[in-house]
Amino acid sequence: MAISYGTAQTYASYYLSVDVGTSVFFYSAGGVANTASDFLVVYGLSTCLFFINEWYIKERKLRELETQKLQAELDLLKGQINPHFLFNALNTVHVLIKKDQDLARQTLERFSDLLSHQIYEVNNEVIPLKNEIDNLSNYIHLQKMRFENQMEVKWKVNGKLSDLVISPMLFLNFVENAFKHGDNVENGRVMIEIRMSVMERRMDFTCSNSIVAGKKQGNVLGVGIANVKRRLELIYPERHELTIGQTENLFSVHLILKLDEV
């Protein structure tokens, strides 16, 4: 501080064109006090700016760490999807190969498309909505071939899909859950209905399956559904509504999602 004050005095005395009265003022008690006051103001502002800058840097680093943490969690969740999904798809192919070679060939073609989606698209942050629906259609088709007359499956998509993107593999666990836990009803067949409608950027997805009266399917949802819930919280905060419930003979999942455009 003393050095700064002396520098200010020297600058005022030797480098400014001032008259004698002004020079005397700088060396008077009032001048010293005035110069010191000005210096303290500048020093205080500089100190405030320094700490504000330090706070900003710290906050930015914390945000970067939080982003990295969330991304790591998302990568882990996606990593949990892949083995689970591939195991079920391969099991479907294995069952069909034993029944019919022509059916096995069709199944392998579908499985090839599923595997391509799994390898090339699932690790992207977002993919075209149409691609995700095509992947879901392949999976549903495989399951229908596997279970043949044991299930009645209704699968319908309405709305304009172009120009919309979505995080991959958000629906598959819900559909897998329906095929895995659906129960036979009076006609001896499992009833599954999957509907998706898109209006502008709002997507409405419903997946339901028949259950025996009194069964609590919600107690056996497992890791897959918990995975989807967490991904929705991370990727679509305050942009989704997920409702999971059941009546006496029906278990259902209803997801409303606000999508992004390309």
Could you name the key traits of this structure?
alpha+beta; 8 strands; 7 helices; 19% strand; elongated; 262 residues; single chain; 3-stranded antiparallel sheet; 5-stranded mixed sheet
Overview of this protein structure:
The chain is of the alpha+beta class and 262 residues long. The protein has 7 helices and 8 strands, in the order ααααβαββαββαβββ. The strands form 2 sheets. Strands 2-4-5-7-6 form a 5-stranded mixed β-sheet, with helices on one face. It has a 3-stranded antiparallel β-sheet with strand order 1-3-8. α2 (20-27) packs across α3 and α3 packs antiparallel against α7. The longest helix is centred in the first third of the chain and has 71 residues, at 29-99. The radius of gyration is 33 Å and the shape is elongated. The relative contact order is 0.09.
Order of the strands making up the biggest sheet: 2-4-5-7-6
Number of strands: 8
- The structural class is alpha+beta
Q: Report the span from N to C terminus.
A: 58 Å
The H/E string reads HHHHEHEEHEEHEEE
State which percent range the strand residues make up. 15-25%
Please tally the helical runs, counting DSSP H or I stretches of 4 or more residues: 7
Binned, the helix content reads: 55-70%
Rg calc: 33 Å
Net shape: elongated
Main beta sheet strand tally, sense and closure: 5 strands, mixed
Mean pLDDT: 76
Low-confidence stretches: 14-18
